[in-house]
Design a protein that fits this description.
Order of helices and strands: EEEEEHEE
Distance between the termini: 30 Å
Radius of gyration: 13 Å
Largest sheet: 5 strands, antiparallel
Strand order of the largest sheet: 5-4-3-2-6
Helix content: 10-25%
Number of helices: 1
Strand content: over 45%
Number of strands: 7
Structural class: alpha+beta
Length: 98
């Protein structure tokens, strides 16, 4: 299980802005959701599962407005977190500028 004091590093391009990094511990590993805001204000997001052996499986990825992003995050939360009494936790990553 990931401790919230784990360090998360995000590589940021000059024309990007970090939107959110969400993390949730689940039985098989850790769910992570990363979103960035593009110059045109669209949100690019990816939700993935990192299992205990560090294998990563992308569950959702997309680009759209804030409503699209919220739907994707809420859908994962309703299916994979809430039934098990879990919730997303917002994490402040260490930003690496490109």
């Amino acid at each position: 299980m990931a401790a919230r004091d784990d360090k998360y590093y995000i590589v940021k391009q000059p024309d990007e802005q970090l939107h959110q990094l969400l993390v949730a511990d689940v039985e098989n590993g850790t769910l992570k959701a990363l979103s960035k805001i593009n110059r045109d204000q669209s949100i690019v997001y990816k939700v993935f599962m990192e299992d205990k052996s560090k294998k990563i499986k992308v569950l959702v990825d997309g680009e759209g407005d804030n409503a699209d992003y919220c739907r994707a995050i809420n859908n994962i939360e309703e299916k994979m977190l809430i039934p098990y009494g879990k919730t997303w936790q917002r994490v402040k990553p260490i930003i690496i500028e490109r």
